[in-house]
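A common beginner's mistake is to predict each chain separately and then try to dock the pieces by hand. The better habit, illustrated here, is to supply every component at once so that their relative placement is modeled jointly.
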Amino acid sequence: MGRSVRRRHGVFLSLVLLLALGSLLTLPPLATGQGAVPLKVQVIYAANEAGGVDGRLGTLAAELQKTFRYSKYELLDSPQGSAAVNQGWRTGLPGDRSLEITPTAIKDGEYTLTVRVQASGGQALVNTRVKLKAGRTVLVGGPTHQKGVLIIAITAG
Amino acid sequence: MGAMAHWLHMSTGRGRRLAAYAAGDLAGPQRARAEAAVSGCPGCRREIEAHRRVAQTLRATPRVTLTDAEAGAFWSGVERRIETRERPHRIPARPALREMLWDHPRLSLASAAAAAVLVVGITLTQMGGWLSSSNGFPNGVEVVSVEGGSDAPVMLFQMPGSSLKVIWVFEEPTAE
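With all components supplied together, the output reads:
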């Protein structure tokens, strides 16, 4: 192999390695910003009775209809708030129940939340830990209400 | 009109039948049908004539044969020509690292590609990982753990076609 060809390959390899090193050094710091987590909750009454779909549910209505087979979806309440990491945010639910959401971590636009639903007597109905990307929704459903059930849509970010 | 009929015959797959007819491979009703088609198609007749000329030419070509002496000398000649060719240079059993990485263009490029892949991998790992996001976190929702109350079993599900994950609590109906 000619000396000039070797030299070219050597220069090319050196440039690539320098580029690699530079990329590593200029990486942004890990996104571990710790701020308040915006929380949005929609409390929905679902039942097989007349009433149809509440227009205020927006795009969530179509997803609910794909997931469940109820004929009525009514938005009862839509509390919003925010909570810092390891600080709980609480809101009331129909039937003297309560919902408590505690963010436990924020990383790269993903929120880790502890979600607790408590019955009227204070006993836990469900205790769960979820990871949500910003703007994504998880549903907690099943608590009975009137002739149907409650479905709680929880969105973070 | 005749040219059109011939084109139509050839387009509809009759060319192969004409070749078989020219070779005398058709019999009975197939042969009769071919003859009827050929009678009204001058182009088909020319096609058949061409097939026949090719067949005659192939039959007239003498076979290539080797005499015993030629056959006996063939392989020895091949081996002799292989033996007299220049042998390749001996490759060192253990090339130096510099020779492997620096002087060899393919290895140089492979090293560069490996370095690039390494950088991308480290970058993704440091930034939180696409891998975990795309595999275990497909809809932006991951239920890490879930437990129900003592009288409220829970179920986690997601319906096909829906992006929603549902934690369902089986609560005993109570009078509200």
